[in-house]
Specification:
single chain, 272 residues, alpha/beta
Length: 272
């Protein structure tokens, strides 16, 4: 379905009256609560094969006077559980539309942050509504990696239950750490597909079979070489490209392109 038709469909389906999707050039954008919303994408690189395999979606929000607002400030403006659920789905729908608009050229998977207030507000059937949204966009849960703060997954039993629900629907799960330490045992028990760290780990530990390690903030060749030497699987950072509206192609010459199901084709060796 053309992007214009998808935008029209989602605007008709949204009965809240809180937001409006529209076409801004070749990309989707939205207005919500006086904020202009758009998508940026940062490439995720497989360090072993040295190529882009997916993209991290990031929200860019600006007030009407052009001042940029952080995503946390935008979420903080949502005063009720219903409003945060609506806003979170709106942002992920916006990212899916903008990813869809260039998926044929870019390929790979889409990594999306899910706000913990959304997970706690939805009582059951987590991922069902967004699955219908993805289907309308021609995407599937298997195309998506949902990213959640690892510390929250450890401290909220209900949140862990919600994440397990997502996993059962076919979404892949990334747990994002806040420093160089590993997520707690309760979080690791969820067997995440990806463990995301902002710093190189100070020590290795036994991890769930098949979990990949992703390092963010790879902005220099030195950090890149350290990551490769340490055995990091995936990386993102300005060394590979700053967040921008256009995705990077995964179809490098002479290399097999990663498709939406091929994240599982990258495996780390056992680390002690």
């Amino acid at each position: 379905m053309p992007l214009t038709d998808l935008i029209r469909y989602f605007n008709v389906a949204d009965t809240s009256g809180e937001s409006t999707l529209y076409l801004d050039g070749k990309r989707a954008a939205a207005w919500h609560g006086g904020l202009h919303l758009g998508s940026l994408f940062q490439p995720i690189v497989d360090l072993r094969q040295e190529r882009v395999v997916g993209h991290q979606a990031m929200l860019v929000a600006r007030r009407q006077d052009g001042v940029t607002v952080s995503s946390e400030e935008a979420y903080a403006a949502c005063e009720t559980a219903e409003s945060v659920v609506h806003f979170d789905r709106l942002c992920r729908t916006l990212h899916a539309l903008n990813f869809l608009a260039q998926q044929q050229q870019a390929g790979g998977y889409l990594q999306l942050a899910v706000h913990p207030r959304h997970l706690l507000a939805v009582q059951n059937q987590h991922g069902l509504v967004y699955e219908a949204i993805l289907k309308r966009c021609g995407l599937a849960p298997q195309d998506i990696v949902l990213q959640v703060d690892a510390s929250l997954a450890s401290s909220h039993g209900r949140l862990a239950e919600a994440l397990s629900n997502y996993r059962q629907r076919g979404y892949r799960l990334a747990l994002a750490g806040q420093d160089a330490t590993w997520p707690g045992a309760a979080a690791l028990a969820l067997a995440p597909d990806i463990i995301q760290l902002p710093q190189l780990p100070t020590e290795w530990q036994n991890l769930p079979a098949g979990s990949l390690i992703e390092l963010t903030g790879v902005d220099s060749g030195h950090t890149y070489e350290q990551a490769r030497a340490t055995g990091i699987d995936l990386a993102q950072g300005r060394l590979f490209g700053a967040p921008q509206a256009d995705c990077r192609p995964t179809h490098d010459k002479g290399r097999v392109a990663y498709n939406s199901a091929s994240l599982s084709g990258v495996r780390h060796e056992n680390r002690q």
